[in-house]
Amino acid sequence: MDTLIVAARVVLSLGVVLAMLWYLQRRLSRGARALGVANPVTVVGRQPIGQKASVVVIEVEGTRLVLGVTEQAVTVLHEKPFTPATPTTLDAAISVLGGPESAPAAQFARSLAAAEADDPARVAQPAPSASLAGSILSPSTWRQTAALLRQGR
Q1: Is 120 exposed, middle or buried (0-12, 13-18, 19+ CB in 10 A)?
Q2: 71 Cβ partners below 8 Å, 6+ apart?
Q3: Which of 89, 39, 43, 49 lies closest to 64 in space, CA to CA?
Q4: pTM score, two decimals?
Q5: DSSP assignment of 85-117, as one string?
Q6: Mean of the per-residue pLDDT values for the chain?
Q7: Alpha helix (H) ranges present in 49-86?
Q8: Closest Cα to residue 69, out of 50, 53, 93, 48?
Q9: How many CA atoms lie within 13 A of 11 on its CB side?
Q10: Residue 101 and residue 85: Cα distance in Å, rounded?
Q11: pLDDT tens digits for range 76-111
Q12: Which residue(s) pair with 46 in the sheet?
C-alpha cells in the first residue's frame, strides 16, 4: 500500500512539473511573438555539395552571407550587403549579359520581375474560402499552370 501511494505521488509530481514547463514554454513563446521579435537570421538557400558539406546563403540584418558548412567548421565564403532586385538593376544585368534580345534568360528575368511586382492581372489568386486553395489538387492551380505554359510558347 505504501509503495502505491509513493508511486502515485511521484507520478502526480512529475505531471505537475511537466504541466508547468509546458505552460511556461507556451507563455514565453507567445510573448516573443507578441513583441514582434523576429528571427534575425534567415536561411535564403542551401545546396549540398557532398555527403557532409553544403553551401548556405543566409541573410542577417540586411547582409547576405555565403557560408561553407561541414561537420567540423562553418566558413564565410562571401559577404555582401543585400539590395532587392529592381527593374533598373534587372535591365542593367540583362544588358551586360547580351542585350534584351538574348533569348530565354531575358524572358525569364522579365517574367520573374512581373510576378514579383504583385500585378493582380498577371497572377490570379485562388479564392481563400476554397478548401483546396493553394494545393496541387485545386483546379485553379492547374488552370494557372496551363496559362503559364501557354504564355511560354
Answers
A1: exposed
A2: 52, 53
A3: 43
A4: 0.36
A5: --HHHHHHHHHHHT-TTSTHHHHHHHHHHHHHT
A6: 75
A7: none
A8: 53
A9: 6
A10: 20
A11: 998 888 776 666 666 666 666 555 555 566 666 666
A12: 56
Letter for the amino acid at 80? Answer: K
Report residue 33: phi and psi, to 5°: -70, -40
CA dihedral 66, 70, 75, 80 (to 10 degrees): 0
* pLDDT greater at residue 13 or residue 121: 13
Find out whether 77 and 67 touch, Cβ atoms under 8 Å.
yes
Rounded mean pLDDT of 128-146? Answer: 69
Q: What is the pLDDT of residues 38-73, one digit of tens each?
A: 678 888 888 888 888 999 999 888 888 999 999 999
- For the chain, state the CA radius of gyration: 26
DSSP code of 132? T
Check residue 138 and report its DSSP letter: -
Q: What cell was used for 30?
A: 507567445
Angle at 39 between CA 76 and CA 67, to 5 degrees: 15
